[in-house]
Design brief:
Length: about 250
C-alpha cells in the first residue's frame, strides 16, 4: 500500500497509509489528514487513489500546494514526490517502494490520447519524481513516460473473459482501436480533460481525473465516482467520441 511520510521542516512526524480511494488534507479536524496550521486551508488538497496510481489536487487553497518546489493544481504522484503545505512535507512512497520491491513501480504508465492522432507506443517505466505529463500539441498522440533505466515490458492484467476495446468514432483518428489489456489507461488531454479506464475483476470502469467537465457515457456525465462500462457504451472525452466494446479473449 502506498503511503506518505509526514514531516515538519525535515523532522519526521510519522507515516500515513493511503488506505482510502479519496483522502482530504486540511486544517479542519474532519479531514483524513489533519494539519493544524494556519498556513493550511480548511480543505486544502485531495489525494485520489485509483488502482496503484495516486492523483493530487489542490482544492483552491489560499497558499497553494507545492510538489517538489513547484506549485500544482493537479498532479499524478510519482514515487519520491514531496508535497509541501506551508512548513509541512508529505513524501509520497509508491506501493511497490513501500513494499520494498527495489523501488520499482509496477503499475501501468500513462498513455495520453490527443484529438489530432492516435498511435500505439510501447509503455515504459517512469523515473521517480517525474513531473506531470507535458501537454505540448506537437508531441505524439499517445505518449509513454520516458524511462529512467532500460524499459521493461508492462505487466498485463490476466485475461478473464472478454477483453475491452475502444474505437475512435470521429476526428482524424476515426476507426483507430485501442485494446484495454492494461490495468490502467489514461486518456485525454492534460489541462483540458483527463480520465482513466481501469480494468478490475468486476469489469472496466472510467473515472474523471482532470478538467472542469466530466467525461460522458452515452451522453450523460459520469460524475466524480468510478463509472462501470458496458458493451457498446459511447464515451466522449476532450472532444473525441469512442465506442467501448468487448471482443473475445
Amino acid at each position: 500500500m502506498a503511503k506518505l511520510i509526514y514531516s515538519l521542516d525535515g523532522a519526521f512526524l510519522g507515516d500515513i497509509a493511503l488506505d482510502k480511494e479519496r483522502m482530504t488534507i486540511g486544517r479542519r479536524p474532519g479531514n483524513d489528514i489533519h494539519i493544524d496550521n494556519l498556513a493550511v486551508s480548511g480543505e486544502h488538497a485531495l489525494i485520489t487513489t485509483i488502482g496503484k496510481d495516486a492523483f493530487l489536487e489542490d482544492l483552491g487553497s489560499t497558499n497553494g500546494t507545492l510538489v517538489n518546489g513547484k506549485p500544482v493544481t493537479k498532479h499524478i504522484l510519482q514515487n519520491g514526490d514531496v508535497i509541501e503545505l506551508g512548513k509541512y512535507q508529505l513524501k509520497y512512497i509508491g506501493e511497490a517502494a513501500a513494499a520494498n520491491v527495489g523501488g520499482q513501480e509496477d503499475f501501468e504508465k500513462t498513455m495520453i490520447i490527443r484529438p489530432s492522432a492516435m498511435k500505439a507506443v510501447a509503455p515504459a517505466v517512469s523515473p521517480a519524481s517525474a513531473a506531470t505529463p507535458p501537454a505540448a500539441a506537437s508531441e505524439p498522440a499517445v505518449k509513454a513516460d520516458a524511462p529512467s533505466a532500460a524499459p521493461k515490458p508492462a505487466a498485463e492484467v490476466p485475461t478473464q473473459g472478454p477483453v475491452g476495446k475502444l474505437q475512435v468514432l470521429n476526428g482524424a483518428s476515426q476507426g483507430k482501436e485501442l485494446v484495454l489489456t492494461k490495468a490502467l489507461t489514461t486518456l485525454g488531454k492534460p489541462g483540458v480533460q483527463v480520465a482513466v479506464i481501469t480494468k478490475r475483476p468486476q469489469g472496466y470502469f472510467i473515472t474523471h481525473v482532470e478538467g472542469a467537465n466530466y467525461p460522458s457515457v452515452n451522453g450523460s456525465p459520469v460524475g466524480a465516482q468510478a463509472h462501470p462500462l458496458n458493451d457498446h457504451d459511447v464515451l466522449e472525452l476532450a472532444g473525441i467520441k469512442m465506442e467501448f466494446y468487448f471482443s473475445p479473449a
